[in-house]
Structure formats: C-alpha cells, structure tokens
Amino acid sequence: YWRSGVQGTLSSINYNFDLDVTQYVLFDFDSVEEIVDILGGVDIELSASEAGYLGLGGAGTYHLDGAQTLSFSRIRSVDSDYERMSRQNRVIDALISSLKDRSPIDLLNIVDDVLPYIETNLSNGAIKSYVTRLLGFDLSNIEQYQFPKDGYESQLTSLTLYGYSPQYVLKDFSGEVESLHRFIYGEDDDYTASERVLKVEEDILDLAGY
C-alpha cells in the first residue's frame, strides 16, 4: 500500500493468492478511533499484560473508548506479531458484537456517521444494502482466517528485503494458498496452486537462498 496505494495492494493480493478481489474499504488509525467512539465504545477482554500496557487494572473485560481501542490493537511489545493480529481481530469481533442488537434505522444512521472516516469503491446504495442484509446473519458466528494458518510454525526462515525485516519465508507457500481457497470457497473446492503461485513460491525461495 505504501508503494502503490489501493490498486497496488489489490493487485498484489490477487497475483500472489490467485484471487479476484475488486471491492475494498480503506480506513486508517484515526478512523478506528472515530468509529469506535461513534459506536459508544467496545467491550474487550484483556489479559493482565494487555491491561497493564493500557494503564488499567488486572485481567478482565473493559469498556474501551476509541483511543484505548486503537492503543490495544497496536500493542507490539508484550508478545508477537501474530498476537497483535489477533488483537485486531478481537477489535473487529467487538465492533460486530456492538451492532448485533441495533435496529435497522440505527444501523443505517451508523453507516451515515461512519462513511466520512473510510474510503471505498462501494456505492452508498451498495453499502446500505449490505447493512440491511446483515440483519439476517448470525453475527455471533463469523469465521476468521489467519495467513499463514499456523503462524510462526508455518515459517521456514526470515530475511531482510529492500531494507525491511523481518520478511517471512513460508515452508509451503503454495499449500497455504490452497488452504486459503478452501477456507473461502469450501472444503469441496478443488483448487490447486496455479503455475503463477508456484512461480511466486520458487522466486521467494530463490531470494532466501533455498
């Protein structure tokens, strides 16, 4: 994203993972803070180390405002990158949980309040159509997927690339892409890694000296 914006990001995702993502919603750190405050804060269960980082008491469930939620989602020092990603997923879960019992009118009003803080190529009509359809979903049963699926256990090594480190090299990049497709499209999906994905994997291993 830093190098080539939204279209570069979409192109990278689609090229490397054999996908065809065309729609996006973009938000930044300030947006997270504003959106959480629009929703009146979120309830998140914190470990003792997370609570200590935020200057709160011991482990427990806390009602966090926007600034606290943003600080929570950016914690790096108490564990690992994958735990940080897990915290960001927990924020998403908390935001969704706060919407579960809202009326259709409330949801549409929230959309109007949130739109100034995001960038998207979806039309307002499409967004409101999706929000209305959310009312029929089980918002307490949303599945999330981590890539690579086993975190650090999926890594072969790491290296510095273009001045940035660590860049993670996976033991089985093509297998990870196949697992991602099965998660998205179902266990019966017969996708196998394309020639392009295999070439990406080969190029990565070459860069790492394998």
Principal-axis shape equals globular
Could you estimate the helical fraction of the residues in percent? 40-55%
Q: What amount of the residues lies in strands?
A: 5-15%
**Which CATH first-tier class of the largest domain would you pick?**
Alpha Beta
Tell me how many strands there are. Answer: 6
- Strand line-up across the major sheet: 1-4
Specify the CATH homologous superfamily of the largest domain: LCP protein
Q: What profile does the largest beta sheet have?
A: 2 strands, antiparallel
Radius of gyration: 19 Å
The assigned CATH architecture of the largest domain is: 3-Layer(aba) Sandwich
Count up the domains.
2
Describe this protein's structure.
The chain is of the alpha+beta class and 210 residues long. It has two domains: 111 residues, LCP protein (Aminopeptidase), CATH 3.40.630; 56 residues, no CATH class. 50% of the residues lie in helices and 13% in strands. A two-stranded antiparallel sheet has the order 1-4. The protein has a two-stranded antiparallel sheet with strand order 2-3. The chain has a two-stranded antiparallel ribbon with strand order 5-6. Strand 5 and strand 6 form a beta hairpin. Helix 6 runs antiparallel to helix 7. The radius of gyration is 19 Å and the shape is globular. The chain starts with a helix and ends with a helix. The relative contact order is 0.11.
Defining traits:
Aminopeptidase, alpha+beta, 2 domains, two-stranded antiparallel sheet, globular, 9 helices, 50% helix
What topology does this entry show?
Layout: H1 5-17, E1 25-26, H2 29-38, E2 42-46, H3 48-53, E3 60-64, H4 66-73, H5 81-99, H6 104-114, E4 119-120, H7 124-134, E5 155-161, E6 164-170, H8 173-185, H9 195-208
Antiparallel strand pairs: 1-4, 2-3, 5-6
